Amino acid sequence: MRVADALAPAPSSTPTFTDRVTPSEISSMTQRIARAYENALSEASTGTTWATTFGKTLDALGRASEASASVTLPSMTHGDKATREASTRGKDALKAMFDGTFARREVYQAMARVGADSAPNAEARRASEYLMREFERNGAALDEASQKVLMQKLGELEELCSSFCAAINEDTTKVAYTEEELEGVDVTAYDEDEQGARLVGLIAPDMMPVMQFAKRSESRKRMAEAKARQCQDVNTDRFLRVVELRNECARMLGYKSHAEYMLKPKMARTPERAEQFLRDLLVKARGKLDGDLKDLQQLKDEEEGPDAGPIQSWDVAYYSTKFKATLGVDEAKIREYFPLEHVKQEILSTYQSLLGLTFTRVDAEVWHEDVECYSVREADGEQNVLGFFYLDLFPRPGKYTHQCVYPLRPAFAADGEFTPAACVNIGNLSKPSADGKPALLRFREVETFFHEFGHVMHCVLSKSQHSVHAWAWSAVPWPGGVEQDFLEVPSMMLENFVWQPEVLVRLSKHYSTGESLPKEDIDALSASRGALEGYARSRFISMALFDLAVHGGPGPYEFEGQKYDSIDVYNRITASLSKIPSIDGAFPVASWFHLMMGYSAGYYGYLWSEAFAADLFSEFEAKRPSVCDPALGRKYKDMILAPCATVAGDDMLSNFLGREASLNPFLKRMGVL
Ligand SMILES: [Zn+2]
Predict the structure, then answer these.
(1) How far is the CA of 593 from the centre of ligand 1 (A)?
(2) For 241-261, how does the pLDDT look when each residue is reduced to its tens digit (9 = 90+)?
(3) Ligand 1 mean position to 452 CA, how many Å?
(4) What is the mean pLDDT of the chain?
(5) ipTM surpasses cut 0.85
(6) How close is the Cα of 491 to the center of ligand 1, in Å?
(7) Ligand 1: distance of its center to the CA of 439 in Å?
(8) In angstroms, what is the span from residue 406 Cα to ligand 1's centroid?
(9) 2-8 long-range Cβ contacts below 8 angstroms, 24+ apart
C-alpha cells in the first residue's frame, strides 16, 4: 500500500513490508530462511579461520534476523486470522532454529579450535565471546551424554513454563456479584449470569475497577482472594518443578544456582550484587512505606470508622485511588491538553532537538494505510541514513492490543555493507473521530508514548556491526540485544523528560483554546509522581527478593531467622516487607507470568534500570534551567544509545557519567535522601 501525499522518496536501504502476504508465502519464506541458515552453519562447522567459523555464523545470524521480520510481523499487525496464525507458527519455527544454533557441538568445536581471540577487532571479539558463551550455556562444552540430559531437562522446562502460562491465559474464573455488592463500580461493563449476577474476570481491566472503586470491602476481599489463588491448584506444582529443574540445569553447567547462571551475562553479574541493591533500597524506602500506610489508614478510618482495622491487601488499590484524588490531579481536564497529533509532533520534535537528529517521513511500502515510515539522519554532519522507524499507532481488529516497540531489522554489517536498523512503534491510541474532534491522550498514554519512543531511538541509532549486539528483546525470535537488566535504562532515562515542566508545556496544547497545560496542573502532576511509592517499591522489592531466593538454590529458605519452604517464604517476605498481611492459604506466584517468561532471577531488573536511569538523568537535571541540553543529548546518543550491546552497561554508564554510577539521584527523586 502506498501513501499518496508528497513524501520524500524512500532511500534504497528502506525495508519493505506488505499486507499482501498469504499463509503459504509465510511458510515458504520461513523455509527459505531456515535453509540458508542451515547451509551457513554447516559450512561454519568445517571452518578453520575466524572468518569461516565465527564470521560465517555472525553473518548468517544477521541475515536470518533481517529476513525474519517479514515472517513474524503479521502475527502482530495483520487483519486476517489465518495469516496471523501462519506468522505465529513461522515465528515459533524461527525461534527454534535460532535457539538450536547453540546446541550444535560441531559448530562450537570448530570455533573452539579457532578461538575468539583470533577476531579481527574488539567488537568482533566481543561478539565471538558472546557466541562461545551461548554455546557453553547450552551444554555444547559438556560430554555428549550430559548435554543430552541437559537438553531433556531444558525441553521439560520449556513445556512446563508454557503450560503454566497457558493455564493463566485460559483461566475463566469469574467472581459473581449482585449490583449492590458492586456499589461504586460501573457494572454495565460486566456480563450477567442467568440469576442476574455480574461476572468479573481476573484480568486487570475487569478486576481493577472492582479493586479501585467497589465501596464494600467484602466485595474487594472476594476479588483479591480469587486473584491470589488463581491457578494455584494446577500451577503450584509446575512452579516448584520449574525451580528445581532450573537449579539442576545450572549446576550441570558449573553454576551454583539458576540465579548465578542468569545473572552472569547481565549488568548485575552476581545475585549478591542484585540482592544488595534491593536491600539498600528497601532500607531507604522503609520510612516512606510507613508514611504511605498511615495516609491509607487515615482514609480508611475516615470512611469505615474507628473499628475499621488495619489496611488489608484488598484496601490498597481502593484507598490509593482516593489518596491520589486528594493531590488535585484532574485527569479529565489534563487530557484536553493532549491531542494526539500535537503530542506526536512534539515528541518527535523533542527527540530530534535533544539528540541532534532529523526525521523524514518517506514514501515506503507499508502494511497498512495508518502506518507511517520515517528515516533518521544526523541533523548535521554525515547524511547517511542511521535507521528507520514506523509508527503504527491505532487499534485495528486482530492487531496486538498493547504498546510495544517491535524490531524489524537489526543493525549489522555483512560483506562490507552496513544495514541500518528498523523498528515499529505499535500503539493502540484512539483515532481522531470523523467529526473533526481530535483524539485526546491520557497523561499516562503520553508518558508511555514518550518512553516507547526512547526504545525506538535505542534500536534505530544502534551502530552495531553484528546483529547479536543490535537492539532486540524476547518478542523477536533472533538472539542478542543489550543486557536484560540494562534494556530499559535508556528509555526510562528519556521518560524522565516527560515530567519536566518545560517539556510538558511543549507537549500540551488545549484542543480548543490552544493553551499549554496550566502551572497548577503541572505542579499537581509532579506531586503525584512519587505518590505511595514507599508501598509500591517495598512490595516490588519483596517479590524480587523472593525471585532471587528460590532461584538461588533448593530450600529451605531463611528469612528473618526462620526457615521456610518456597510457598511460605513468599508469603512471609511479602507480608513482612510491605507490612500488609498476605491472604491465608494463597500462593499468588501461581499466576505470576514474569518468572516463567524470561524474567526468572530477573524481576529486580525493572527497579535496577529505573535507578540507573535516574542517575543518567541527573546529568541533564544539572543543566537547569533547561534540561533539554542538545550537547548532552548528543553525548547520550553517542555513549549510551549508539553502542547498543557492543559495550557493557556498567562501562557505558561510567563512560557517560565520568564517575561510578550512584543510587543517590534515584533516592532523591523518591524523597528518601
Ligand atoms: Zn520499556
Answers:
(1) 17
(2) 999 999 999 999 999 999 999
(3) 6
(4) 95
(5) yes
(6) 6
(7) 24
(8) 11
(9) 2/363, 2/365, 3/363, 3/366, 3/369, 3/372, 7/361, 7/362, 7/363, 8/360, 8/361, 8/362, 8/363, 8/375
Q: Would you kindly state where each structural domain of the chain is located, as residue ranges?
A: 23-157, 172-229, 233-327+531-603
Least confident of 93-107, 123-137, 309-323, 425-439: 425-439
> Which CATH class for the 23-157 domain?
mainly alpha
Q: Residue 423 Cα, ligand 1 centroid: separation in angstroms?
A: 14
Task: For residue 519, report the distance from its CA to the centre of ligand 1, in Å.
Answer: 28
CA distance 447 to 235: 35
Cα(482) to centroid(ligand 1), Å: 13
Q: Domain 233-327+531-603 in CATH: superfamily?
A: Neurolysin, domain 3 (1.10.1370.10)
pLDDT digits (tens, 9 = 90+) for 343-378: 999 999 999 999 999 999 999 999 999 999 999 999
Q: Is the pLDDT of residue 4 over 60?
A: no
**Residue 619 reports pLDDT greater than 50:** yes
Maximum distance among all Cα pairs of the chain, rounded to whole angstroms: 80
Which phi and psi (to 5°) does residue 121 adopt? -155, 175
Cα of 404 vs centre of ligand 1, distance in Å, is 8
Distance 474 CA to ligand 1 centre (A): 13
Segment 282-295, tens digit of pLDDT:
999 998 999 999 99
